[in-house]
Design goal:
Number of helices: 6
CATH topology: Cytochrome Bc1 Complex, Chain D, domain 2
Distance between the termini: 61 Å
CATH architecture: Orthogonal Bundle
Largest sheet: 2 strands, antiparallel
Radius of gyration: 17 Å
Strand order of the largest sheet: 1-2
């Protein structure tokens, strides 16, 4: 008797943008994007629903995610790549509603 064995692909699963946000951004920006965490208050992080952030284009927000901002925010280009960074910007826009 011959038995067939199926080997499942061990390809890593891509995280959802919400989980990436919670892992990488929420420590400063908060789960709700308000920036009211201890670190967010110290760094004077902008609320994602503020007029100043809302007027930013997606391209401008993407640039901040990829390259960072000032001395306090590292860029995530190497960690996340452009595709996930775009999804992260889209997720942040949902927090601003």
């Amino acid at each position: 008797m011959i038995t067939a064995v199926t080997i499942l692909s061990a390809a890593p699963q891509q995280k959802e943008p919400k989980q990436v946000y919670l892992d990488k951004c929420a420590v400063c920006h908060g789960e709700d994007g308000k920036g009211q965490t201890a670190k967010g208050k110290k760094l004077k992080v902008k609320d994602v629903s503020s007029p100043e952030v809302k007027k930013m284009t997606d391209a401008q927000m993407l640039e901040v995610v990829l390259k960072g901002k000032g001395d306090d925010m590292d860029g995530f280009e190497k960690d996340l790549g452009a595709d996930m960074s775009k999804k992260l910007v889209a997720y942040m826009r949902t927090l601003a509603k």
